[in-house]
Input
Amino acid sequence: MSLRSRLLAGWHLLRWREFAARPGHCPFCGATLLLRLQREGTSLRCIRCAASAVHMSIG
Ligand SMILES: [Zn+2]
Output
């Protein structure tokens, strides 16, 4: 999946008032930036591989 299509897919989930980014650790790509798109915990995404909270918990 290209970066552009990832951004477009995330765009409709995005709520700017709940948006947050913080440094974190992804089990697939290591140190990364984690984006929170909504208040719910499941909307957490890795900015490098686009893994969701579910993917990261499996990893
Ligand atoms: Zn990742």
